[in-house]
Amino acid sequence: MELRKEQARQENKAVKPFGIKDKVGYLCGDLGNDFTFIFASMYLMVFYTNVWGINPSLVGTLFLVSRCIDAFTDVTMGRIVDKAQTTKDGKFRPWIKRMAGPVALASFLMYQSSLAGASMTVKVVVMFATYILWGSLCYTAINIPYGSMASAMTDVPEQRAALSTWRSLGANFASIIIGSVVPQIIYMADANGNQIVSGSRFTLVAGIFSICALICYVVCYACTTERIKLEPAKKDENASLAKSFKTIMSNRALLAIIGAAITLLLSQFMAQTMNQYLFANYFRNINALSSLSMITLPLSLGLAAISGVLASKVGKKEFSVFGMILTSACYVALYLIKTTNPWIFICLYTIACIGTIGFNMFIWAHITDVIDYNEVKFGERNDGVIYGVYSFARKIGQALAGGLGGYALAFIGYNAAVQEQTAEVLNGIYTCSTLFPAVCYGLVAIIMLFAYPLNKKSIAENGRILAERRANH
């Protein structure tokens, strides 16, 4: 026994202390994810409708069907990760090495403009096959281990909050790069000033982003270190998946954050989808669309700099509620004034981003708080399964947003075959881009305020309880 304790002490001494290298590596992991994920969230609908000529309602159906598949693949992957043995590289990091290449390749395969002239049957079959391969299989197999890895990198609450902040910065950097650069490359103006999408340029950009994702995954793998040994339970101690799932579904904090996440993403990704059409068709100003993405950079950096103070002084839940109320109010104002000036729209959008960026800055720290809450309440940690369930919930929100975006475009009469949309279609695009997010962000504020139980005081108490349990183990 003493020998094992001495070996454990020597191993802990040999592990590099948590530092900036881990933060940068973890940032690069989400940057790699989002070079393919945010690109798909923002532009895949545009590619399918404007390059391949597929009906937007059918694209929406694709997103919904794939999420049904994710109901199995996300939770199954979480279970696989939880039961995996810890290797010399850790429990979660090996999956980043295994899946970096497949997820990058699968993403590139979705954007093949050479199939634009193929029959509609061929295009629909390829659309379903490549999207499910990328999103439901390859992306799931790298994203769930990556997200779960934060629990193994450190058990210090402040360091976990820092990982959440740096991960959010990675997502924001990807969003800024994709949102500001892509419109300048894939759109071309015709003689009448209408914005036309270039299919070949779409494929080129997809290839570049796949390479960038692969590089980011390599950096993530090289720079991160798993310090907490999370060994799987012994065979006779392993709860069945059904039992684990039942326990997790009794977790009030998880259910609340899932409800908030679905509603938030429903709003956020619906707005991202509709913004492509809002600026290309309603404002007819692609340069403004690029500026819309770039303004999030200073906000992200500023909020990242004070995120630690906000978490410790104000509280993660408390700031999230304030941010969602602010964001909802800004979108209500945009809907009421119905501006035709893109720069007025961008000004109010900038204020709204304080709330959305702030919420997303803390979202992954919320998940580690939820995992701690599950351990305190039920005596089970279930990092991988909880993350898998939450990941699936996020995908539900994204799918509903993509699906509703496609159905909304079809409902208001958007026609990708014509260069100029009718006034009714343009007004419909504006309403979907403003009123819908206003309502959803307001609902997120209500959920976080009344349903999510983990405020600043309860989080501190949970940390104290777990520290005592581990000290006495």
Would you write up a description of this structure?
The protein is an all-alpha fold. Helix content is 80%, strand content 1%. Helix 11 (296-314) packs parallel to helix 13. The longest helix has 37 residues, at 342-378. It is globular, with a radius of gyration of 22 Å.
Kindly list the characteristics that best describe this protein:
473 residues; mainly alpha; disordered N terminus
Lateral strand order in the biggest sheet: 1-2
Main β-sheet: number of strands, strand sense, barrel status?
A: 2 strands, antiparallel
Write down the secondary-structure element order.
Answer: HHHHHHEEHHHHHHHHHH
What is the overall pLDDT average? Answer: 86
Please compute the radius of gyration using only Cα atoms: 22 Å
**Shape from CA axes?**
globular
Q: What's the total number of strands?
A: 2
Specify the structural class: mainly alpha
Q: What distance lies between the first and last C-alpha atoms, to the nearest angstrom?
A: 14 Å
- Which spans have pLDDT < 50 for at least 5 consecutive residues? 1-12
Binned strand content: under 5%
Percentage of helical residues?
over 70%
Number of helices: 16
Draw up the topology in text.
Elements: H1 2-14, H2 20-51, H3 56-83, H4 93-109, H5 120-153, H6 157-186, E1 187-189, E2 195-197, H7 199-223, H8 241-248, H9 252-282, H10 286-294, H11 296-314, H12 316-337, H13 342-378, H14 383-411, H15 423-450, H16 456-472
Antiparallel strand pairs: 1-2
